[in-house]
Design goal:
Elements (H helix, E strand, L loop, with lengths): L7 H17 E6 L10 E5 L6 H10 L5 E6 L6 H9 L3 E3 L6 H4 L1 H8 L3 E4 L19 H9 L3 E7 L1 H4 L13 E7 L15 H23 L10 H19 L6 H5 L1
Parallel strand pairs: 1-7, 2-5, 2-6, 3-4, 3-5
Antiparallel strand pairs: 6-7
Helix pairs in contact: 1-2, 5-6, 6-8
Length: 261
């Protein structure tokens, strides 16, 4: 996408956001050559700080291919925020849709128009204790397999030093470095022309998450755990421990009368 198609609202947002980001963060940006010069594509990015969407948007804005992020469709109806979301071409997701494909219809349309759609496959800030990418949701795989577009895995690191996950107190000084590494497109050809089932989507999503994690490993200079953190499994284990704790603290067997003797 040429810069003349970025549009007023995105340029306006850049005028507001870029100066403080330049002042507050040093930049270690690599892999810009892997961002396609034209045509629709997906970037799949890890998420570990409330700051990193702004920092990542800065990175990709500088490539000339602005990202269109997915957001709840309700945000598009609210005053100035809604106007900005619509004006910058962000993409509504209709999560209440009973049809999974319909929920991501706008994202598919954007890719087919030649846009870049930026996915945070984890769906939220990572809950991994060491901040590695956790299990991903299947929306990114669904759009990728439907459109057969390039999927660029992107790792980012460093924003957590300025704002830790779920923290409200930033620490901007001393000045932190935001690291980004965009990799080569993920090979999903093995999944093409097959029936799109939940199992297939999970497999394709794991391939994408593995590619993202590999980029993060390079940035961090260390290896991720072999088993990816799964929030669903963690919740089940937490409930199991809670139930076990309740059972162990309950009175032993016998009637009330017997226990009172």
């Amino acid at each position: 996408m040429s810069r003349r198609r970025i549009g007023f609202w995105y340029r306006f947002a850049a005028v507001l956001c870029k100066p403080p980001l330049v002042v507050l963060f040093k930049r270690d940006w690599r892999g810009m050559e892997n961002i396609p010069a034209d045509g629709g594509f997906i970037t799949a990015v890890n998420h570990n700080s409330h700051l990193d969407p702004f920092l990542y948007a800065h990175f990709q804005y500088n490539t000339g291919r602005v990202p269109r992020f997915l957001a709840k469709h309700g945000l598009f109806k609210k005053g100035f925020v809604g106007a900005a979301m619509r004006g910058t071409g962000q993409i509504p997701v209709y999560r209440e849709s009973t049809n999974a494909l319909s929920a991501f219809r706008a994202a598919i349309d954007a890719v087919e128009r030649g846009e870049c759609v930026a996915f945070y496959p984890e769906g939220t800030l990572t809950r991994d204790p060491q901040l590695w990418p956790m299990t991903g949701k299947t929306g990114v795989a669904r759009v990728a397999l439907q459109t057969k577009c390039p999927v660029i895995p992107v790792g980012q690191w460093g924003a957590t030093e300025a704002l830790a996950p779920y923290s409200k107190k930033p620490h901007f000084f001393p000045r932190k470095t935001h690291h980004v590494l965009a990799g080569e497109p993920v090979d999903l050809s093995a999944f093409y022309d097959r029936e799109i089932t939940p199992e297939l989507l999970k497999e394709a999503t794991e391939v994408i998450m593995t590619a993202i994690t590999a980029e993060v490993e390079v940035l961090r200079g260390e290896q991720a755990p072999q088993k990816r953190y799964d929030p669903r499994e963690a919740r089940i284990e937490q409930r199991r421990k809670l139930q076990a704790g309740k059972e162990s603290s309950a009175p032993s067997g016998g009637t009330t009368e017997e226990n009172s003797k």
